[in-house]
Amino acid sequence: MTVYAGIDLHSNNSYLGILDHGNQRLFGKRLPNKLELIERALRPFKSELAGTVVESTFNWYWLVDGLQDAGYKVHLANPSATKQYEGLKYSDDKSDAFWLAQMLRLEILPEGYIYPKEHRYTRDLLRRRLLYVRQRTEHILSFKSMLSRSIGQSLSANAVKKLLPHDAGHLFDSPHLVMAGRCAIEAIQFLTTHISAIEKEVLGHARLKPAFAWLLTAPGIGQILAMTIMFEVGDIRRFKKAGNYGSYCRCVKSEKISNKKKKGRGNRKNGNAYLSWAYVEAAHGALRHYPKARRFYDRKASLTNTTVARKALANKLARATFYMMRDQVPYDEAKMFG
Fold first, then answer.
1. How far is CA 306 from CA 84, 282, 283, 302, in A?
2. Final residue of a structural domain among 184, 206, 228
3. Residue 305 in 3-state DSSP?
4. CA 192 to chain CA mean position, Å
5. What pTM was estimated for this model as a whole?
6. What does the pLDDT look like over 37-89, one tens digit per residue?
7. CA–CA gap between residue 152 and residue 136 (Å, rounded)
8. What's the DSSP call for residue 111?
């Protein structure tokens, strides 16, 4: 007898539901988020278990890794694509868990990608770097604003990064402004130190991968963007076509068309926000240094607007890098722009 398991995962507990091939419920119980307890509940069904579905929530790493290490076949459910019958009057964790198992039984489960454990934390470290960069930018902008309103002067962002804490005493006359300026400069220096340390650590791993060298040949893509793209993508072969990859990078329209008329939008947030950011940044760089990219952008902007044109260039870069990573080849301008 073949059985299927579904786990509705929460922050401190999970509901485990198990059913057989005839949709008969064999087991259902709420369990604390402890791997040994969940694995103990699954153990009597292990020999007959076709698969275990875990909902892709913010905290799935420990459970998926633990079950895979214990020899279970695990599927990661995409929650944004997992929908029950909309006419249901009542649903709870129990019904959600059994619905996950039932979708696996019916072979209609929308699966998410289980990123390989050995590279997952390198990817997360790069995401931490981006968080620190944004925080540093907030401190820099706040310091520049304080300068403008207090002494009527302005400094560039690069100049602010080079300031030392004691420079606040030369810029401001009020002791409270001096203290605020010193705190801001120290925070900027602190974040800069950690950003540099993360970049150095990740770069050592990135240089070992062939895809990193190929990505560096693309217009607008430097070391940081190449590392971000490479580690966010993981295995490029999980995307069937360049269009699927462009959609995952949020580089395509999200529209619903009927009879050639726009009837609304789909979920614009479906996809990877970090890849979306990376390709838009790459488009900015390509505009400044590559004439063909600039001509493509200008032509699109004349027909639509600058935002759409920039996104179109980002999509073109995403499609180009898809083939570069898949086929392990350098950038070819003739193939991208004709």
1. 40, 15, 12, 8
2. 206
3. coil
4. 23
5. 0.88
6. 999 999 999 999 999 999 999 999 999 999 999 999 999 998 877 777 666 67
7. 22
8. B
